[in-house]
Specification:
The complex is a heterodimer of chains A (378) and B (358). Chain A has 2 domains: 49 residues, no CATH class; 268 residues, Orthogonal Bundle (Cytochrome-c3 Hydrogenase, chain B), CATH 1.10.645. Chain A contains 15 helices and 8 strands. Chain B has one domain. Chain B contains 15 helices and 2 strands. The longest helix of chain B is centred in the first third of the chain and has 38 residues. Classes of the chains: A alpha+beta (378), B mainly alpha (358). At the A-B interface, α4, α5, α7 and α14 of A face α7, α11 and α15 of B.
Chain lengths: 378, 358
């Protein structure tokens, strides 16, 4: 067990001749939260990175064990707060699979549309934050302009802007807002018109390209061995999109591409995410006019009980594979629960990717990993 | 014609009439110092507000709009807050150097105000080696930054200061060569003569390609010299929290902040003087009536207009570009800018020798 003084003592002993040990975080503008990196430097060159976790650990997994199957879903909104809707979906899918609840088609389609909107919102925030890490402040505001439209749609639909809590086992909590389709179409139109601004401002910028190309390279083998998923792995050429491999809800009925790149550098990860936003828009366009009528929630018992056994589901969040593993003893609460969060595995690759590069490169690498600290600490 | 010359002349005449020459000179000095300090304060307030407004409009928002009409007094309120804030000194800092550093940086800005011609015959000190004076004094500011970084006893500050040292020393070369191009054309180091040589046209237009190249080089180099984005590695907010001024708070931080803006003003003023004709109005060849009309605009407005145009350009850079990496920054200078400036200086010399410029 570490306490604060031990950490300080520990890091001061790390520094040998010609080395500079700096504590980056838990309060640092680029770590976006309370990530604490102990970075060993030689001049400007990074020799070692040691992440220290636990500053925002809330024992969510333990907490879930004392909550019923209806209740524990909403705690997961607080893990990866940028894909809270998709986290909720993963938990609901597991319960539906375990108890074999029939979900109405209407709910399935709405869940997918909202998942894709969540993914776009998350990528928009990442785009702004990453550009800010590289010293460009303006893209942040451009990205938030579009993200704001999504959060407004979310506010109309579920009453919340960040932690949606819209999903219940068997369907949705309420029906859609009457303006939903109109607003989503307006967003799609706005996004398609404005996405070229990102190209002009960020993608085609020579400084941005020279800061990201060839920086923080992760090979396909390393991506697999570190357990990286999501855009991080796909930028290295690892096909790992859960929506394609294990389709859930209506993902097998819509056409979309899995974005792959082979370079494995920061620029590839950037491009994968930007293209993914366009794919998400493509999915939304296919579904928005085809929301079937009917119930928004299936018939369920009041008290849900998962049969005895082990259950696992996975969904594709904005950051990668989110897995839920539950051991049930047949009661109303999970006996043991484990979340597989994408951020934790992606962070583990950071040391491998950043060693030997400059401090500035660390920002590019860390920015394109798209870390959400509550997701890593849980 | 409106000119500040009449006012300054009458004040001087009156002073020399009333007092003996030594005392009159001393009083003049006091007046000039007071004017320079108030100019400092006003420039700081105006430029900070301008930066925030420019940034806001580039970033599709409104910027400060609560304190006073259009947010005009926002910087005044901020300054008051900074003055009243406690100025913390870190426990193991080198107290003397830590407290001295902001004043060194500030002093450099003040010294650089001296040779700048703000309007026709409105110049504090028309020294005959003006350009040399500017180049040599401006290189002193790196000492203040290194002092701040070292004395703070903070690793981020130290990294920021070291970056800043490497950066300013390198980019001074390019800035120096760019300035030399104009000196070669003019044949004088004196600011008033450089301005006077642009009576018929600004050097940017009549110096052929070398002048244009050196103008671009100058803008790039001074952006780096004043530690502005995309070359703000010394501060590098997302990497080094705040770089060399991480540990500074209250008024001492405000001095660094103010010095940054004063430095921007000064480099832009020098750029305007060398390349855009200083306080000279815009004249186009044979358009007599147009030229005559332009003469009616006071020279101080011409000077400030040109300076603020360049300041806007530098602000525009900051809110558009990401930051360079430290090795890319040094590569840019030593591999590209420096060879280009050397070649450009050679070209300018050839043109000047044969008298090919207009």
């Amino acid at each position: 067990m570490y306490n604060q003084t031990e950490i300080l003592k520990d890091t001061s002993e790390l520094g040998t001749e010609g080395e500079l040990v700096i504590n980056m975080g838990p309060q640092h503008p680029a770590t976006h939260g309370v990530l604490h990196l102990v970075v060993t430097l030689n001049g400007e060159t990074i020799k070692k990175i040691e992440p220290h976790l636990g500053y925002i650990h809330r024992s969510i997994e333990k907490m879930c064990e004392s909550l019923t199957y209806r209740q524990f879903i909403y705690v997961t909104s607080r893990m990866d707060y940028l894909s809270s809707h998709i986290n909720n979906l993963g938990c609901a899918l597991l319960i539906e699979k375990g108890i074999q609840i029939e979900v109405p088609d209407r709910a399935k389609v709405i869940r997918v549309i909202l998942s894709e909107l969540t993914r776009i919102a998350s990528h928009e925030l990442w785009l702004g934050a990453m550009a800010m890490d590289l010293g460009a402040f303006t893209p942040f505001f451009y990205a938030f302009r579009e993200r704001e439209m999504i959060t407004e749609i979310m506010e109309d639909t579920c009453g919340a802007r960040l932690t949606m809590n819209y999903i219940v086992p068997g369907g949705l909590m309420y029906d859609l807002h009457p303006d939903f389709q109109k607003k989503v179409k307006a967003f799609v139109k706005q996004f398609k018109a404005k996405v070229t601004e990102y190209e002009d401002l960020v993608t085609n910028n020579i400084i941005f390209q020279s800061r990201t190309k060839g920086v923080g390279i992760l090979s396909a083998e390393d991506a697999i061995s570190f357990g990286c998923t999501g855009p991080v792995a796909r930028a290295s050429g690892v096909s790992c999109d859960i929506r394609k491999i294990y389709p859930y809800e209506v993902y097998d009925k819509v056409s979309f591409n899995e974005i792959l790149d082979t370079a494995g550098d920061s620029f590839a990860r950037y491009m994968v995410r930007v293209k993914e936003m366009n794919e998400s828009i493509h999915i939304i366009e296919q579904l928005i006019d085809n929301i079937p009528d009917g119930d928004f929630v299936g018939k369920t018992k009041n008290v849900l009980k998962l049969p005895k056994g082990e259950f696992y589901t996975r969904v594709e969040t904005a950051r990668g594979e989110f897995g839920v593993f539950i051991v049930s003893e047949g009661g109303t609460t999970p006996h043991r629960i484990k979340f597989r969060s994408p951020g934790f595995s992606n962070l583990s690759a950071l040391n491998h990717m950043a060693v030997g590069s400059k401090i500035g490169d660390l920002m590019a690498t860390m920015g394109t990993l798209d870390l959400v600290i509550p997701d890593i600490d849980r | 014609m409106y000119s500040l010359e009449g006012i300054t002349k009458s004040i001087q005449d009156w002073l020399f009439l009333k007092f003996d020459p030594t005392l009159a000179l001393a009083i003049e000095c006091v007046i000039v110092i007071l004017l320079a300090i108030s100019l400092f304060a006003i420039l700081g307030l105006v430029l900070v507000l301008m930066e925030r407004k420019v940034a806001a409009h580039i970033q599709i928002r409104l910027g400060p709009n609560r304190v006073g009409p259009g947010g005009m007094f926002q910087t005044v309120a901020d300054t008051l807050k900074l003055i009243m804030k406690e100025g913390l000194t870190p426990d193991k800092a080198d107290k003397f150097l830590f407290n001295l550093a902001p004043f060194v940086v500030m002093m450099v800005g003040m010294l650089l105000l001296a040779p700048i011609a703000f309007a026709k015959n409105f110049q504090i000190w028309d020294i005959n080696i003006g350009v040399l004076y500017i180049s040599s004094v401006s290189s002193l500011s790196v000492i203040g930054i290194l002092m701040a970084g070292w004395a703070s006893n903070n690793k981020y500050s130290l990294l920021g200061a070291m970056r800043s040292g490497a950066q300013i020393v390198s980019y001074e070369l390019s800035a120096g060569f760019a300035v030399l191009t104009i000196v070669v054309f003019t044949g004088s180091l004196q600011i008033s003569e450089i301005v006077a040589s642009q009576q018929t046209g600004w050097w940017l237009f009549k110096g052929h390609i070398p002048a244009v190249i050196s103008f671009v080089l100058y803008i790039i180099a001074v952006t780096a010299e004043t530690n502005r984005a995309p070359f703000d590695l010394a501060e590098a907010e997302s990497e080094l929290t705040a770089g060399f001024h991480t540990e500074y708070s209250g008024m001492r931080f405000a001095l660094f902040f103010l010095a940054e803006y004063i430095n921007i003003f000064i480099v832009c003023a020098i750029g305007a003087t060398l390349f855009l004709g200083g306080w000279m109005p815009l004249h186009i060849g044979q358009w007599e009536s147009f030229n005559h009309l332009m003469d009616y605009i006071p020279s101080s407005i011409w000077f400030m207009g040109k300076t603020f145009l360049l300041i806007f350009l530098i602000m525009w850079f900051r809110w558009t570009f990401p930051r360079l990496r430290v090795d890319q920054l040094l590569n840019l200078e030593w591999k590209y800018l420096l060879p280009i400036s050397l070649f450009n200086l050679l070209l300018a010399t050839v043109i000047a020798i044969f008298g090919w410029h207009f």
